[in-house]
Amino acid sequence: MQEPLKYEDITGKIIGCAMQVHTIMGNGFQEVIYQRALEIEMSLQGLSFEREKDMSIYYKDIVIGGRRVDFFVEEKIMVELKSIINLKTSI
Predict the structure, then answer these.
(1) pTM attached to this predicted model
(2) Per-residue three-class SS string for 67-80
(3) Longest alpha-carbon distance in the chain
(4) How far is residue 73's CA from residue 81's CA, in Å, rounded to a whole number?
(5) Residues 65-74, buried b or exposed e (16+ Cβ, 10 A)?
(6) How far apart are CA 62 and CA 4, in angstroms?
(7) 38 burial class (0-12, 13-18, 19+ CB within 10 angstroms)?
(8) Residues of the chain where predicted confidence (pLDDT) is lower than 70
(9) CA–CA separation, 59 vs 54, rounded Å?
(10) What are 78's strand-pairing partners?
(11) Quick check: 42 and 49 in contact, CB under 8 A?
């Protein structure tokens, strides 16, 4: 029997929010537009989050750098959005 994924309930809500935004907005917008829409949707779904959060990166308990994530949800999950106009594939 497979163990449940860590934070499966939260990730399910986040994915549901992202799918709702995509269903309503479609594609073709800049990333910031999707960030704003996702912020609204996650609020409506009762998820707590910080937006544009600066976070330290550690290696063996030593800070080696930093990054800013689009959303830090429920103090557990980092969410980074990417927006592209279309996908290109090679054959």
Answers:
(1) 0.82
(2) EEEEEEECCCEEEC
(3) 44
(4) 13
(5) eeeebbbbbb
(6) 31
(7) buried
(8) 85-91
(9) 17
(10) 72
(11) yes
User: Per the structure block, which two tokens stand in for 52?
Assistant: 């544009």
Cβ atoms 80, 38 nearer than 8 A = no
The CA distance from 44 to 80, in Å, is 19
Length of the chain: 91
* Alpha helices per DSSP H over the chain: 8-25, 31-44
- The token pair that represents 47 in the structure block: 């998820």
Say what the pLDDT of residue 22 is.
94
Tokens of 64: 């080696």
Six token digits for residue 17:
């929010």
Mean pLDDT, the chain, integer: 92
* Pair type for strands 49-59 and 62-73: antiparallel
